[in-house]
Amino acid sequence: xxxxxxxxxxxxxxxxxxxxxxxxxxxxxxxxxxxxxxxxxxxxxxxxxxxxxxxxxxxxxxxxxxxxxxxxxxxxxxxxxxxxxxxxxxxxxxxxxxxxxxxxxxxxxxxxxxxxxxxxxxxxxxxxxxxxxxxxxxxxxxxxxxxxxxxxxxxxxxxxxxxxxxxxxxxxxxxxxxxxxxxxxxxxxxxxxxxxxxxxxxxxxxxxxxxxxxxxxxxxxxxxxxxxxxxxxxxxxx
Length: 238
Known about the structure:
By secondary structure, this protein is α+β, with helices and mostly antiparallel strands. The protein is 30% helix and 35% strand. It has helices at residues 84-97, 121-136, 162-166, 201-237; strands spanning 3-4, 17-19, 21-22, 25-29, 37-43, 46-56, 69-75, 107-116, 143-152, 155-158, 170-180, 186-197. The strands form 3 sheets. A 5-stranded mixed beta sheet has the order 2-10-9-11-12, sandwiched between helices. Strands 4-5-6-8-7 form a 5-stranded mixed beta sheet, covered by helices on one side. The longest helix has 37 residues, at 201-237. The relative contact order is 0.18. Mean pLDDT is 89; it is low at 1-12. InterPro entries: ExoRNase_PH_dom1, ExoRNase_PH_dom2_sf, PNPase/RNase_PH_dom_sf, Ribosomal_Su5_D2-typ_SF, RNase_PH. Its main location: nucleus. Residues 22-138 form the Exoribonuclease phosphorolytic domain. Keywords: Exosome, Nucleus, rRNA processing. This is Exoribonuclease phosphorolytic domain-containing protein.
């Protein structure tokens, strides 16, 4: 899936132009054995794996009486080094989206691994986690996705590759959540944001608008991916 979004430059934000094209997206679900849900997501040349185990048994030291205990591990590259910042952001997203009250005394283990890095890894990892959760069938109150925007030489660039990020003045990774209010119209709102570099607030607002517009296409990709999975699963059962 390759997406071209339209966005008008904004003189008030100091942005002369925007490059608003998402790299091609591909996803494979249920590819890891011995997991309750998994997703391999390709976003351009960036490849992220996400796996879900649980809800299941939890050590007594981590057990919560009133809700699900969530453990997140985000690994960079081929190393075993974990990122505190990415773990914090993902934990916050999951707490807001998974219906934790439904699973007291249980644990959910979420692992994200960078398999191939070519920019926007955190954003792709967030989207991969959402697909892995949907694959697992856990109860959720919405879906979410990650989108990265780079600001380079007065230009906003959607879904930047590594080469662009190296030369960027600032970098924004947004997480948007789509959910229904009272089972009616769906709404999209930003639930997390990670920033890097020095920027004006007007630049931040312009980047957020660009990312929000692109989120609609990624949410469509999530739904189409799940529809294909469900149709294949139904065919295998029959």
